[in-house]
Amino acid sequence: MTRGTEYAEGAAEQSPQLWAARAAFAEQGVLARHLRRLWAIPGTRLGVATWPASPRHRLLVNWNYWWQANLLDCLIDAQVRAPSPNRLRTIHQHVRGIRLRNFRQWTNEYYDDIAWLGLALLRASDELGLDTEDALDAITVRLREGWTDHGGGGIWWRRGDNLKNVPANGPAAILLARFAQDRADRQRARSITDWMDGYLRDRETGLLFDGLRTSPDGGIAGLVDIVYTYNQGTFLGACVELAADDRSGIWAERAERTIHAVAHHLAVEGVLPGRRGGDGGLFAGILARYLALSAIRLPEASGDLASWLVFTTADEAWRNRAVAPSGPLFGDEPGIPAITPRGPRDGRVERDLSVQVSGWMVMEAAAALEGHASMRS
């Protein structure tokens, strides 16, 4: 029996509501400390970027578009885990707040931003029944337009830029595979994921590099050979989606390869590493989300190992949480004790909404695995 198998089975033998309860506490803390009306407009909610918040953040001057998308994803996780009319109302208000803060538009210049929001809005539609058709049409049209042959293919990171990277292509591939209004979208998702595998995979470790820059003639100017956790997660998520109708087994094989690469070359004794605050605060949680999805949807592709990585990371994050008003407060590194910030001038990364949403996301990933194990038993 592998270590992953032992851990997955051991976790399933715990209280069937252990991780669900921890996810609920995490949700309570994040929403109480960060969720506010947008500019006092009734019927709106947005996540404040920090807690304790500076005056600028309290006024929601800073616009962290993709943080809001992942906050929305966590709200949907919670609603699926424990349906509540109050939370459903909050989800409606949050979607409205995002659109109003984005000046009544669903898109911006960043293809990664809109792909993240598209993923959350598609789940809101499919799993909760929200009408997000107009938003999804606007987002997917923009993503389809983002593909060019520069650098061998792929979608741009931003309009007018020369960077093509996993942060844009990974979530775009997942969204197009799920949305799939026609066979062409499914093929687009395959082409995007093939491009990431062919151009950005490190042949030595199996991990995905961040991206590549193109030259004016369409060639490759250079490789951005940084390895980020969340890029492994979105590539894994795309493979999971594409494995659903694949008889060759190639996508399940790629998913399994990625899980092993994470376990052997990124995780430290099963714990996913953090990457400070800011945007990096979200990285570990996103990888945990797609590891859990892979374990549930493709259990034969090293599902036990994927589960072990999620539960081990969740255990460490919970054990090292700090005490804060309304609920637990997480650090950016699951294996290091979190420290409660002293005020709005404290530079600790624990203040960042991204870090707290990531911690909550890890708890929801563990709760999803727990719930899946309970259904099977």
Automatic annotation (TrEMBL):
GO terms for biological process: carbohydrate metabolic process. InterPro entries: 6-hairpin_glycosidase_sf, Glyco_hydro_76, MUG_Protein. It comes from the Bacteria. PANTHER family: MEIOTICALLY UP-REGULATED GENE 191 PROTEIN. This is Predicted alpha-1,6-mannanase, GH76 family. It comes from Actinokineospora alba. The lineage of its organism: Bacteria, Bacillati, Actinomycetota, Actinomycetes, Pseudonocardiales.
